[in-house]
């Protein structure tokens, strides 16, 4: 025990390597490693991670770790306070989570990866925060249709163009509306360009998306993709949120509705099967949808504000 204590002191307090500890104590390197491990196992070593007081409002390590454990996440990133209730869903409002998600994306994406995304203000905020030359990928592909008869701007062109430029990637557009009548959807899926794009999206290595609430405070309602009658039907069927225009219930399971047959987007099952999925969420309106997505294992990584994190952990 004396030797183990000495080895731990040299290693943890004096900053010596295990090889240097071995030379100092006259033992082999493997023995030095075992001595350090024995000291830790016997309670001779305490390791404490301390957040400086000046950074406590900016770093949320405890909440991140608890989110990871609670929902089986690969990584959770928690930022400051989120979008105010009733604030317009514009990209600037999501700047904080956008920067955090951009940093996470840069760490997780590989040069040979295909990056898929759904459109929305959160995703615009992410690509706006991307810095050139830091990371790259092979292809960027649109996961859901965006064409609309309204003047609503989805941000798809900006996301594709900026990702292609910053990540030095080839971009694949999905030239289709988000919703169409079922027969038209079948016809579009037989179109070689649309079918190849959806196939590429379904097999994307990393997917980036937000969630939409089943309410009037959603981009789908604002963009005239949904009306009040549709929303009432979705609520009656137990829908709590959507990803790429596909609705799910409180357990993250797809909701059987006509919209499922009308959606031109990657199915939720393909999102669930993707090994690297990043969900971005900010604002009280999206809390319930975020919880449903996490319960349904629709995201492996989460970027959210501290208010959302605390709400999730309180459920």
UniProtKB/TrEMBL annotation:
Transmembrane segments: none annotated. Keywords: DNA-binding, Transcription, Transcription regulation. Residues 62-314 form the Sugar-binding domain. The keyword DNA-binding applies. Residues 10-48 form the HTH marR-type domain. InterPro entries: HTH_MarR-typ, NagB/RpiA_transferase-like, SorC_transcr_regulators, Sugar-bd_dom_put. It comes from the Bacteria. Belongs to the SorC transcriptional regulatory family. This is MarR family transcriptional regulator.
